[in-house]
Amino acid sequence: GQNIDQPTEMTATEGAIVQINCTYQTSGFNGLFWYQQHAGEAPTFLSYNVLDGLEEKGRFSSFLSRSKGYSYLLLKELQMKDSASYLCAALDSNYQLIWGAGTKLIIKP
Amino acid sequence: EAGVAQSPRYKIIEKRQSVAFWCNPISGHATLYWYQQILGQGPKLLIQFQNNGVVDDSQLPKDRFSAERLKGVDSTLKIQPAKLEDSAVYLCASSLIGARDMSWPEQYFGPGTRLTVT
Predict the structure, then answer these.
(1) What is the pLDDT of residues A80-98, one digit of tens each?
(2) Which of A90, B13, B33, B78 sits at a 20 to 30 Å CA gap from A50?
């Protein structure tokens, strides 16, 4: 079956760095998305990786290892506004997004 | 550019009643998705349209849910009759063209409709 695993909740301190891990098992693979979702709001796009390696975009970076079925989202210089859920989603062979349940990130001052 | 529009934002109904949600995607986006997101879970795809044709509706409970996208632009999702377990946020998303046709298949989401069935 198809499955996405990510931690349910993480806590970090303002100004620190946090890494949110995601492992996936899908029928075929056409890329890995990370979305941010604030409480009561719609998901917003953060990153898309299809090749192995690290993609950096400002304070956020995303890494992919296709051979290991593994990705992580790295958030640097954490701000209070980064408190949100972070959703990992893999694009399968039918180009359908398989979503994880999301990681709730709590930032403490 | 204007984003994905959805209405209503909130809806409370009693079980066995019917309800309809509306979505207007970003202009020019051929592909439209309806998702159901239960609290604490990731989005679950209900149906995907490309223009006015259905690409995937394998997870749509067809005995009570229906969706249409007339003229290949806006779309409605209907539930009739509603059950308690239908309480969720219903998200509409759109993308420029079908994911397999592009190298950056990003989906843009609307604000969602929060449905409470009592």
Answers:
(1) 999 999 999 998 887 788 9
(2) B33
